[in-house]
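Repro case for the chain-ordering regression, as requested:
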Amino acid sequence: MTLKYKLTANLVAASLVPVIFVAAIAYGNAKHSAVNATLSNLEAVSDATVERLERYRRQGGDESKLWSVVRDNAALGERGEILVARRQTATALGAAPEIEFLAASRHEGDASELSILAGRESEVAIERALRGENGRSATYTDLAGRPVFAVTRYVADAGVGISVQMPKTEVYSSLSSLRFALIVMAAIVLGFCVLMAYITALSVAVPVQNLTLASTQIAGGALDTPIEQVPGDDEISALSHAFSTMTAHLRELYEGLESKVRQRTHQLEDALKEVTKFQQAVQYSTDSVFITDREMRIIYINPALEKLSGYRAWELLGKTVDVFKYERNDPALYLELFAVAARGQGVESDELINVRKDGSEYNAEFTFYPIKQRNQIQFFVGIINDITQRKREERAKSEFVSLASHQLRTPLTSIRWGMGRLRKTFDQSTLSPQQTKLFDAAHHAAKQMADTIGTMLMISRLSSGKLKLMPQSTDVAVLLQAMNELYQAQCVLEQKQMLIECPAPCAIQSDPALLKEVLSNIISNAIKYSPAGQSVRVNVTQHGNGVTVAVSDQGCGIPAAEQGKVFSMFFRAENAQRMPVSGTGLGLYLVYSLVTFLGGSISFTSEENRGTTFSIFLPLTPPQNG
Amino acid sequence: MAKTVLVTEDDSFLRETIQAVLEEHGVTVLSAENGDEAIQIIDRQPVDLLLLDIFMPVKDGYAVLEHRRTKGLTFPVVILSNASDHISKQKCEELGANDFLVKSDMDEDELWGKIAAFIGE
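-- result from build under test --
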C-alpha cells in the first residue's frame, strides 16, 4: 500500500477516535442533561401538584373532584402525564387491592376505566407511588408497560399516590435531532479530517513517491532523471535537495569516469595497434620464432615454426623448451645454453641438429634470449633457422679445401725438395748471386705455399667446427723455448734478436699444438716485419685467471686507419705490402680464430714506423664449449 | 752396421729423394711403392725404421701397420703423409706409429734430423 493511503488511513483513524469520542461524550452529556432536566421538570410539576392537593384537602375539597389538581399537562410535553391514584381497600379475600384512579389519564382514558392489576410488585410507576416510594426514577413503566421517567409521591395522610411521568421515548426523541445534528457535524468534521489527512499525506507522500520513482530510475542507470525540488524547509525538501545534489555528483563522477575510460580505451587501442604491428611482424616472419614464459614453457609459436618443425601450435603450447631437444646433440650443450639464458644472457648455436615431427633431421641455427622487464626475466624468445643448406655448402667447401690442400701438398713437396736437391747438385762456390737468388726465390715460395696451405687447412677446420678443444697441461715457457729454437736460424740470418721473458714453469690448460700455431704466427710476423738489427721481445705475465703473452717488435707498425681490419681475412696493411716481406694476410685471421677458440682474447697497440705489440690473453682453464 | 730404413711412398720422385737423402747419411734404404710391397719386405727381412705413407694403392698404410702389429714386429714407424686432415693421428698411434710428419712442411734435408733419433743416430 502506498504511503499516501497509509498516512491518510492512519491520520483518519487518529482523528476518528477523538471525533467519535467527543461526539459520544457530547451526546452522553446532552442525554444526561435532558434526563435531568426532564426529571427536574417532573419534580417541579409533582411538587406543584402535591402542593395543590394538600391545599385542596386543607380547604376541604370534594374528593371526587380531586382531579382538578392535575393541571400541568402542558408542562409535560406531548405524552407526559400526571397520574393520581388511591389504593382501594381489599374487596374480596385474598384478592389484591385494586388501584382507583382519581384523575383521568391524559392518554389512557377516563379514570374510571383505568384499572391495573395490583398485587404483584410491578414496575408501574403509579403503583410504586402507592407503595410509598417518593422520588425520581428512570426504571418504571407506565400503565402499558412502556418505560418512563417518573417522579412518584405518596401523600400518606390522603393515601394518594402521584406519578408525574414522561415516556422515555419522548425525552429521547428530543435528543434524536441533537443526535442527528451531532452525527452530521461529526461526519462533516470527519470529512474535513479526511480531507486534511489526505492533503497532509499527499504533502508528504507525493514528494516521497516522486523521490522514490526518480531514485529508482537513477538506480536503474538513468542518471539524467530530474529530481523535483520540493519547496519548503522541512526534511522532505531537504531530502529532495540532498538527492538532487547526490545525483548531480553521481552524474559528474560517472561522466568523469566515462571520459577517463574513453581516454584509456583510446590509449589502449593505440597501444594495441602498435603491438599488433610487432605481433604481425613476428607472425608473418619467415624466421621460426617461439616465445616462452619465464619457466621456459612455450606460449607462442609462429606459423613459420609450425612449418619448420612439422608440429601444430597446439601440440607445443604449454610444453617446455625441452620439446625441441634431440638426442643427436650433446646434452651438455643444451644444459649450457639454457643455463646461460636463465642467467639473463642471450645464447646462440649453429651446431645443433633438430628433428621434425616426421622424423626428418635438419641443421639448426638456434638463438635464445631472455626478455627482461624491471630487470626480471619475463619471457624468452627462441629463433630457429634451418641452415641445412648452408651447412652442406660449408661442409662441401671445407671438404674441398681439405682435399685440394692435400692434393696440392704433394706436388708442392716435389717442388720444394726438387729445388733443394737441384741447388745441391751445384758446387756452392760456383753459384752466382743471381742463381742463388733464383733458387732462394723458388724455394722460399714453395715454403710459403706450404705454410699457407697449413693455415688454410686450420682455418677450415676451425670454421667447420671439426676442432674440439681438449685442454691439457701446457707450459708456455716450454713452447716459447721451442719457438726460440725454431726461429734461431732465421734470426741469425736476418740479424735480428728474439728476447724471451717468461716465468718458468708457466702452465695453463690449453691445446699445445694450437697454442704453438698462435705463438708461431705472431712471433714469425714480428720477426718478419722487424728491421735488421732490432729485436723482438716476448713477455709473459701471469694473472690469477690466466696469462698474457706480449710480443713486441720495432717494425713498420700498422697505420691507424687500417687497424680496425687487422684481424680480417686476407688483410695486409699497405705499408706491409710495400715491404719486401711476403705475407698472405691469413695469419692474423687464423690467430684471432684460434685464440677465441682457446677461450682467450687478443689485442694490439701499434704506431706506424715505431712498432707493434700484440697481447694475447689465455685463460687458466678455457670455458666448456670452447 | 748400417741401418736399414724401409721407405714406403707411392710418389716416385718423393720416394727417390728420401732415399737419396738417407743414403747420403749412410743408411741402407729399401723402398716400396705400396702397402703390399712393404708387407712383403717386412715379412722377409728386419728393418730398423719404417717411413710410411698412408694413402697408397693396393694396400694403404693402415694395412701395413696392422700387419706389423699382428706380426708383433717392433721397429719404429714414422708416418710421412700430406693428408693430415684425413688421417687420425690417434688411430696411427694406436696402431703403433711413433711420429707423424707432413712432407710438404719440411725441406728434404730436414727429414734426417726428424728421424735420426729413431735409428739411434
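Ordering looks correct now. The mean pLDDT of chain B is 94.
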